[in-house]
Amino acid sequence: MGYSYPFCYDWSTQEIIDVIKFFTAIETAYERGMKREELMDVYRRFKEIVPSKSEENRLYAEFEKESGYSSYTVMKQVKEAKNGDWIRIEPSGRNAVGKRTN
Fold it and tell me: Mean pLDDT across the chain, nearest whole number?
C-alpha cells in the first residue's frame, strides 16, 4: 500500500480509525473478499461519521484516486447482495457475489 486514507481533521481519533476500517474493508473486498454483513457493519459506522452523501462521495473519489479501489462498486454489490453472501470485486472489474466455497 503506497497511499493514504481520506479523513477530516475535525474527526476524533476513534472516528478516523473507524473510517480507515471502512476503507480497509473496501480493499479487502477487492483483494480477498468479505462477508456482506461485515461490510455493512463498517459501512453503518462510516455513515454515522459521514452522514452527508456529498461528503461520502468526496471521500469515495479521494480514496479511489489514491488506491484505484471503487467504494461505490463495492457498496453497490453489498446493497444488492443477501445476508450470508461473500462479496469480492475482481481486478478486471467483474463482481463476484455468492457463498464462499473455500
Answer: 90
Closest CA to 69 of 5, 12, 18, 11: 5
Burial degree of 9 (CB within 10 A; 0-12, 13-18, 19+) = exposed
pTM of the model: 0.87
Strand-pair partners of 89? 95
Nearest-angstrom CA–CA distance, 102 and 95: 18
Q: Where are the domains of the chain?
A: 13-98
CB atoms within 10 A of CB 74: 24
Q: How many angstroms separate the Cα of 47 from the Cα of each of 54, 64, 65, 98?
A: 12, 18, 21, 25
Residue at 4: amino acid letter: S
Grid cell, residue 92, equals 478486471
| Residue 19 banded pLDDT, cuts 50, 70, 90 | very high
Give the CATH architecture of domain 13-98. Orthogonal Bundle (1.10)
